[in-house]
Design a protein that fits this description.
single chain, alpha/beta, nine-stranded mixed beta sheet, about 40% helix, about 25% strand, elongated
C-alpha cells in the first residue's frame, strides 16, 4: 500500500513539473514574440519618410562648390544598416562619419558643424574655410602649399609671380598637410624677424622679399634673391638682429657692400661672424 502511494506521489510530482516547464516555455515564447513584435514596429516606425533626412544644405563655403560637399554626404546616408535600418534615418545617421569624410576630402575646411532640424528633417552642414596667410614650399618656389592664420598647412598653392604671403621653405620631406608652416615656432615672430632683417639690410637687398628656410639640424636662413643670412635656433632672434644691425652699421662693411656682391652672412658660431663677397668690382 505504501509503495502504491509513493508511485502516485511521484506521478503527481512529474505532472506538476511538466506543467511548470510547459508554462515557462509559453512565457518564453510569449516574451520572444513580444520582442520581435516591438522590433518590427520600431523598424516600421523608423522607415517612415517623415523620419528620414529629406534635404541637405551647405553654408559657409567660399571657394568650394556646395555640390562637392553634398555628394559624399548623400553617399554616406544612402542604403541601409544590415539591410534594415535606413542610413538616412534621423535617429541613426552617421554624423561622425560625415564630419570625418568632409575633413579628409577638403583640408581647406577648418571647422564643420552638422545638425538635423527635426521640423523638416533638413541636414544642415555649416563649414568655415581656412584663409591663407603664409606659404610653405618644399624647396624655393617648388611644390608650395598655403597655410592658414594658425600656421597650419592645408592645400597646394597656386603659382604666384610674386608671393602675396610670407614664405617658409623646407623642414618636411613627407606630406606637409596639417603640419606647422613654421616648424612649431611662432610664424608671426619669424615673419617679423625677417622683415626687421630686411629693414636693416636695405642697402643690400632693396625691395627683395625675404624667405625663411629650415636647413635642418637647427640651422635656419633668411633668404633673399641676392644672398642669405644663416643662423642657429639656439641663438635668440633678438641677438641675431643685434648682430645684423652691428654688421650693417660698420662703415668698412658698407663700403665693401657697395663695391661687391654679398653672398652670405653666417651667425652660427657665437661671437664670430663669417661672411663672403663675390663679384668684387
Amino acid at each position: 500500500m505504501a509503495q502504491v502511494k509513493r508511485r502516485q506521489l511521484f506521478a503527481v510530482k512529474q505532472i506538476v513539473k511538466k506543467t511548470k516547464i510547459s508554462s515557462l516555455k509559453k512565457k518564453m515564447l510569449f516574451f520572444f514574440a513580444l520582442v520581435v513584435l516591438i522590433f518590427l514596429v520600431l523598424i516600421y516606425f523608423i522607415r517612415q519618410e517623415r523620419f528620414l533626412i529629406d534635404a541637405i544644405t551647405v553654408d559657409g563655403v567660399k571657394t568650394i562648390p556646395k555640390d562637392f560637399i553634398e555628394k559624399p554626404v548623400r553617399e554616406i546616408i544612402s542604403g541601409n544598416y544590415y539591410f534594415i535600418i535606413p542610413k538616412a534615418s534621423a535617429f541613426f545617421y552617421d554624423k561622425a562619419n560625415i564630419i570625418a569624410s568632409i575633413s579628409k576630402s577638403f583640408p581647406e575646411i577648418k571647422s564643420i558643424a552638422v545638425d538635423l532640424n527635426p521640423a523638416d528633417n533638413n541636414l544642415s552642414i555649416i563649414v568655415k574655410e581656412r584663409s591663407p596667410k603664409y606659404i610653405w614650399c618644399r624647396t624655393v618656389s617648388v611644390e608650395c602649399y598655403l597655410a592658414d592664420q594658425d600656421g597650419i598647412i592645408y592645400k597646394k598653392s597656386p603659382i604666384f609671380s610674386r608671393s602675396p604671403y610670407p614664405v617658409f621653405v623646407g623642414g618636411y620631406e613627407a606630406d606637409p598637410t596639417f603640419k606647422s608652416v613654421s616648424w612649431g615656432i611662432d610664424a608671426d615672430e619669424l615673419v617679423d624677424f625677417s622683415k626687421k632683417v630686411k629693414d636693416l639690410s636695405k642697402i643690400w637687398v632693396g625691395d627683395d622679399e625675404p624667405r625663411i628656410m629650415n636647413k635642418g639640424d637647427g640651422d635656419f636662413e633668411v633668404q633673399f634673391k641676392s644672398a642669405r643670412i644663416i643662423y642657429s635656433k639656439d641663438v635668440s632672434l633678438e641677438k641675431i638682429l643685434s648682430r645684423v644691425e652691428t654688421i650693417f652699421s660698420d662703415s668698412l662693411f658698407r663700403a665693401r657692400l657697395i663695391r661687391s656682391k654679398l653672398e652670405y652672412i653666417d651667425l652660427r658660431f657665437g661671437k664670430k661672424v663669417y661672411y663672403r663677397f663675390t663679384d668684387e668690382k
